[in-house]
């Protein structure tokens, strides 16, 4: 699974380099990501590959901060907002299987701290 996270961090670095081209900052201090608990990436794997992927880039030496976004959904069967631990799981309130995820599936570059 780490190979997937390597690709995701490479995409984040590409976004950072686009911002660098626009703003011409000297270095990146902190990269803040929002990572959904039900999303496409494993936070520990992102942390594991971060230093290797950022080596030799404008982001080298920066710190990675991850905000974990919990999963939630809407159950049309019981008309309830519910917490989700599994993207395709049953409704924890009524057991219905048609829960629509409303949060927790994100991977987003939330903020850069630069100088």
Quick recap:
Helix content is 30%, strand content 33%. It contains two helices and six strands; from the N terminus they run αβαβββββ.
Could you characterize what this model shows?
With 115 residues, the protein is α+β, with helices and mostly antiparallel strands. It has a single domain (2-114), classed as hypothetical protein PF0899 fold (2-Layer Sandwich). 30% of the residues lie in helices and 33% in strands. It has helices spanning 2-23, 43-54, and strands spanning 28-36, 63-69, 71-75, 80-84, 100-103, 107-114. The strands form 2 sheets. Strands 2-1-6 form a 3-stranded mixed beta sheet, with helices on one face. Strands 4-3-5 form a 3-stranded antiparallel beta sheet, with no helix packed on it. A hairpin with a 4-residue loop joins strand 3 (71-75) and strand 4 (80-84). The protein is elongated and about 55 Å long.
User: What name does CATH use for the topology?
Assistant: hypothetical protein PF0899 fold
Percent range for β-strand residues? 25-35%
Mean pLDDT rating = 94
| Proportion in helices | 25-40%
What is the element string, with H for helices and E for strands? HEHEEEEE
CATH architecture: 2-Layer Sandwich
Class from helix and strand fractions = alpha+beta
Shape: elongated
Q: List segments where confidence is low: pLDDT < 50 over at least 5 consecutive residues.
A: none
Neighbour order of strands in the largest sheet: 2-1-6
The CATH class assignment is Alpha Beta
Q: Count of DSSP E strands?
A: 6
What is the end-to-end distance? 33 Å
Largest sheet: 3 strands, mixed
Radius of gyration: 17 Å
Number of helical regions: 2
Number of domains: 1
């Amino acid at each position: 699974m780490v190979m997937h996270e390597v690709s995701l961090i490479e995409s984040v670095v590409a976004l950072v380099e686009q911002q660098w081209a626009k703003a011409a900052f000297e270095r990146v201090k902190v990269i803040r990501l929002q990572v959904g608990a039900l999303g496409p990436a494993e936070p520990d794997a992102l942390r594991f590959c971060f230093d290797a992927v950022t080596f030799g880039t404008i982001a080298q030496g920066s710190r990675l901060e991850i905000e974990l976004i919990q999963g939630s959904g809407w159950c049309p069967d019981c008309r309830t907002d519910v917490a989700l631990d599994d993207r395709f799981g049953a409704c924890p309130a009524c057991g219905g299987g048609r829960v629509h995820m409303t949060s927790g599936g994100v991977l987003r570059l939330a903020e850069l701290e630069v100088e």
